[in-house]
Inverse folding.
């Protein structure tokens, strides 16, 4: 948004919520804000919101973030069945995902961010939320994105942590505490996994493939079992996030609530990058008249 000489600086904070593949919608949201020349002064991100938010805070362009998302979060990469490892603390080892997160933040630290950025983790020992705002971004993003059972917990600053979105899916409250003039919360819909579970339960218990050999059938059944286990876990997380997030999110009274329509995007459907980003663009465009009006009102109040 172009400034005139008389404009007063309005501090805008944006919270990018968790939601796995749904979080790719954040890229679309940032695209629209850039279209209107609006740059946030602070970003709070959880899980996938931490991945997108941290890279943007470092100064990476939206186009570059999108390109890296296509390259590192496709269905054929880290979430392939072939990357699942058993007899580990999680289905996917840290080595298998670290290169993906490294592509977004490298060896940078919070102090390198051009936009103030924070993220969250959940301490497994205390069960408490931990704010991460210093040190290596790579470790912080890994901790905030560590979906229990899928990714391994991460040890940061004396805490053994998992996904911060479990307790606070869209951390708008930290933007309020930082005295932002305008607070945006990008809240992702999370009701789809139950549909995938229903379909897979049907496949497992009622569908009887007769045209494959026994040895192949055992492998197919194993794949189905693992996929079903993952979806049950993700659905449990979705329900917990919905209960926790509603309380924290609404109590912080965000000025603008951006709700991309991601209800039919599964949390692990990273192959749907293009349409999910589009959902983010559409949702932000819908809220732009309200945001522009609010910015003008805040500027008038500061004159």
């Amino acid at each position: 948004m172009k400034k005139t000489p008389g404009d007063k600086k309005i501090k805008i904070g944006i919270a990018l919520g968790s939601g796995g593949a749904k979080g790719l919608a954040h890229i679309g949201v940032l695209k629209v804000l850039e279209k209107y020349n609006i740059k946030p002064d602070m970003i709070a991100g959880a899980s996938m919101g931490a991945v997108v938010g941290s890279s943007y805070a470092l100064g990476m362009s939206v186009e570059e973030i999108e390109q890296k998302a296509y390259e590192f979060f496709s269905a054929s990469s880290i979430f392939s069945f072939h990357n699942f490892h058993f007899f580990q603390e999680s289905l996917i080892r840290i080595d298998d995902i670290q290169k993906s997160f490294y592509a977004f933040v490298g060896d940078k630290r919070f102090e390198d961010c051009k936009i103030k950025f924070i993220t969250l983790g959940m301490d497994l020992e205390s069960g408490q939320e931990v704010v991460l705002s210093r040190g290596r971004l790579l470790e912080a993003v890994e901790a905030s994105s560590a979906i229990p059972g899928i990714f391994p917990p991460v040890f940061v600053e004396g805490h053994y942590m998992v996904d911060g979105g479990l307790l606070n899916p869209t951390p708008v409250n930290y933007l309020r505490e930082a005295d932002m003039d305008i607070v945006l919360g990008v809240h992702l819909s999370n009701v789809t996994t139950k549909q995938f579970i229903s379909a897979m339960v049907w496949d497992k218990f009622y569908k009887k493939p007769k045209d494959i050999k026994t040895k192949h059938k055992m492998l197919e059944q194993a794949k189905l079992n693992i996929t079903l286990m993952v979806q049950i876990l993700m659905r449990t997380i979705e329900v917990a996030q919905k209960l926790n997030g509603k309380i924290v999110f609404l109590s912080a009274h965000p000025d603008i609530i951006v709700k991309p329509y991601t209800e039919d995007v599964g949390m692990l459907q990273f192959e749907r990058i293009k349409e999910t980003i589009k959902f983010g663009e559409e949702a932000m465009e819908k809220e732009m008249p309200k945001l522009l009006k609010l910015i003008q009102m805040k500027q008038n109040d500061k004159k």
User: Anything to note?
Assistant: The chain is about 45% helix and 10% strand. The CA atoms of residues 209 and 217 lie 8 Å apart. The longest strand covers residues 116-123. Residues 1-7 have pLDDT under 50 and may be disordered.
